Amino acid sequence: MGGTEEVIIARLSVSPRQGLDNDEEVADALHPRTHNFNQTRRYTLALWLFSRHAHPTFAKYFKRGCVNGFAMVWRMAKRGQLILIAVSIAILLSAFGLPATANGPQNSGQSNPGGYVKYTINNTLIYEPLGIAYDPSNGYIYVTENGLGTVSVINGANNTVIATITVGLWPAGVAYDPSNGYIYVANWGSGTVSVIDGANNTVIANIPVGGGPMGVAYDPSNGYIYVTDYDSGTVSVINGATNTVIATIPAGTRPEGVAYDPSNGYIYVTDFFSDTVYVIDGANNTVIANITVGSHPACVAYDPSNGYIYVTNYGSNTVSVINGTTVIANITVGPLPEGVAYDPSNGYIYVTNSGSNTVSVINGTTVIANITVGSGPACVAYDPSNGYIYVTNSGSNTVSIISTSVSTSSTSISSVTTPTTSTS
């Protein structure tokens, strides 16, 4: 690749019979002349990850090799940035007669044991919201905007966007570290983790990690931040005291989700392409177990009320329930489940189903409700200060706010607060 701007236009024309099962095979289809998998793999993954959240149906077709269209990716090699042209995605979607975005209905007046959508945040500054985390030190919700390279900050007191923070390219996962009050954002496109000081919402550091960082989790037993490196098949361990990488742990082929279990001190990492969850002992940062789960495990969460680990299986429409290192149940949920979070106020698990624009509510090992949200729900988080569940909708560029109390009305919010913009 040259040192100046380079535009790569690749035509993807694949027979449905070809049945592409991994990014290397899709890369082969993208560049049949060169067969340069390393060169094209990042572009392939970028397009697939974008479509996976923005339009799950298209993403499924893309992965199976049933696409005929154009993918345009700009490589800004001189400036070290990659920009995915959203127009090319719209062209691909229109070729299939699929809408680029769709607004999910509100659940006004529903009597639902799992809750209902009370508010929807519509803000022109929010674009392809993905990861989400709550900061108890200031009561703010941090939402990564995968399409803009920014993080939007929502004030949970009035559910308005109060700031926009520039981070790295294609930010994905995000987590809060209570030991230093910092927010850690995984920038998949930049291979870095941006560190945000919640006191002033500014980026104070950018930490180089492995390729394609996706998930982020904090381990309070050792004060470390664990980051899944999707491209390099590793987990980077960051010491929050120094904001430096102190260890790199091999973890399968495509590690994505990550969560900490305080009952045993283990870190659970999903491997999206091997249908496996790797268990890391935080005491010595070594993998101590491999657990077979459903197809394409994505995200993972811990339930302190029963000590179980919940894993969303994107490819099999299930949630695997793990006790220690053993799968004790597989729960059928909606199509293409992805995000997962625990609500301590009612003891329920909330799972986003990006294929049906719903959130499944699980009590123990039973689905008790399904809540309609926006288009392409991705990640989910609980805010204990107001008792709401926040869901990022990548397809409709909104955030659904679920109340777990009895429904009386629902409201659509267009934030009128002029956000401040911080740059790193």
Structural notes for this entry:
The strands form 8 sheets. This protein has a 5-stranded mixed β-sheet with strand order 29-30-31-4-32, with no helix packed on it. A 5-stranded mixed β-sheet has the order 5-6-7-8-33, with no helix packed on it. It starts with 5 loop residues before the first strand and ends with a strand. The protein has helices at 23-30, 37-54, 56-64, 86-95; strands at 6-13, 68-76, 81-84, 116-122, 129-135, 140-145, 150-155, 160-166, 171-177, 182-187, 192-197, 202-208, 213-219, 224-229, 234-239, 244-250, 255-261, 266-271, 276-281, 286-292, 297-303, 308-313, 318-323, 326-332, 337-343, 348-353, 358-363, 366-372, 377-383, 388-393, 398-403, 411-414, 420-422. β11 and β12 form a beta hairpin. Helices cover 11% and strands 50% of the residues. The protein has 424 residues and is mainly beta. Mean pLDDT is 79; it is low at 1-46, 57-109 and 407-424. The longest helix has 18 residues, at 37-54. It has 4 helices and 33 strands.
Structural class: mainly beta
Mean pLDDT metric = 79
Largest sheet geometry: 5 strands, mixed
Radius of gyration: 20 Å
Q: How many distinct helices?
A: 4
Helix content: 10-25%
Assembly type of the chains comes to: single chain
Percentage of β-strand residues:
over 45%
Q: Tell me, what's the shape?
A: globular
Residue windows where pLDDT falls under 50 for at least 5 positions:
1-46, 57-109, 407-424
Tell me the distance between the termini.
27 Å
